[in-house]
Input
Amino acid sequence: MMDYQFDGRISKEVLENYLSRAVTAAGLYESETLSDDLRVVRELGVKFLGRASGIWYMTEDDDVHFAKSRELAEKVHEADPEIILQACIFECVTQRMESVKIPEFVFRDFGMEPKDRYFCLADTLFPGEPAGFVSRREEPEKNGGIPDLNRQEARMWFYYRAVRYIDCGYEALHMGQVHLYTANDRGMVKTQELFEMIRRYAAVHGRRHKVLLDAHTHGVNRRGKLLFDYHAMPFTRVPLLEREGTDLVLVREGYSEGGLNPNGWSAQAMPYLMEYDNWGGLAVDDRARYSREELALKDWWGYDQIAWFAHQSFEKRNHFLEYTYRWLEVNNVCGFFEIPFRRMLGDAPVTMERGDSGAKDIQTFYQINKKSSSCPMGFGQEDTVKRLWQEGHRLRELAANPELQIAYGAEAVYDTETGIKLPEKVVVYGSFQPYVGAVKNDSNSEVTRMYYIGNNTYTLSVVIPYAGTYDFAVSTYGTLSATYCGDGYPRSGSSNKGTFTVEKDNAAVRFRFDFTDCAVEVEIFE
Output
């Protein structure tokens, strides 16, 4: 049994337990299929409901929004009091904020005398209105832009929303694209002060005297102390043109900053969530206008991430979920897959057959639920997620790459017996490379660069999404002057290749190379 107990502070183990059972449940507070959603939560054992509440545009009265948010939290915690609900405070403010009277507690906590006034949009925006930071609309619920957290009015707005979500029973806050709204806050000094205010409030008023903060960031470290409890990132992809259709593969991006966590423990790299993000649905106006090669480079084949996923077939969705889970297990040992549970599709809705009447209908949200009379427009990935979570961290334990992704090692390493300096760059290359996000036969690729793990040995683990036979070789120093693949003797050029075969889709493959003995080994974990 996994431990989900915390109060005031959360241990690394308990935090990771929650993240390992996390889903993106965007806008769950307004779901029309909530009873079935809660059934799925219960049957899967979900413990972290990401993005369960939050607004982008202010389309309803704020008190109504928070009343709905509280009602959701009460229903969820009645079903399982251990569940963490996350709300969002995004990088968007609108004119309708001026319908919200500033509560006395906001003035008081900012050390100000209370006034009888409302929030002011103009006082939250970036001075000078830099291009792309303001969005002029006729509707007050959409007219606005990106807030400037260097300005006190913006910080007061963020604090107000954070406090209200905490009072509703939410124990996590996603703070959106933090590097946008903090651009004028040099060194994020005021941002850190704001976050400390939010944490102090939660320490007194929170359900378990704690609020977890994350954002779309690889991490913010000020004098060794981290700004966030954990980090969150969308996936990055490369189109797989070698196969018919609109396949893609995931690639590593950046890393998760380490340091002293707000909960008092330190780590070389912080835990983090990765998700299928959304930014409107379609990335192009008319998909038919583009060639296949052009469309492949338009975000995720002309969609945002979740819309691409939702437009795949049932079998393809299950395959890609399994691929993503195993890819993350192998590539990012600190990372956890925030399973898509509920996510808006924007202007890329899916036409599908209803589960109650059999009639065709338009679905504007991806939902993980099986189709039923209680959720007639579900996409049906429940069983796949249940199976993946039952796998646990088997692949991570068997074949994961090192924790610190950006450190390949061997910067100043010498063989103890001969004194020869080991190469800093060793690359495995071949026909498999496009299936892991690299260029085919690129002996200098950073994507398939191997990690030095000590004892003259380099390794790299990858996930191959499709069964088949692939060729490979190991390039020392990232060149073709000396490559190895099996018999211990170097060859030059591109002709020296070995092969490996994976019998099942989404298999993990680990390459191992001993520089001193010139030995190459390939292990397959299915």
Summary: The chain has a mean pLDDT of 95. The CA atoms of residues 182 and 403 lie 29 Å apart. DSSP finds twelve helices and 29 strands in the chain. Residues 62-79 form the longest helix (18 residues).
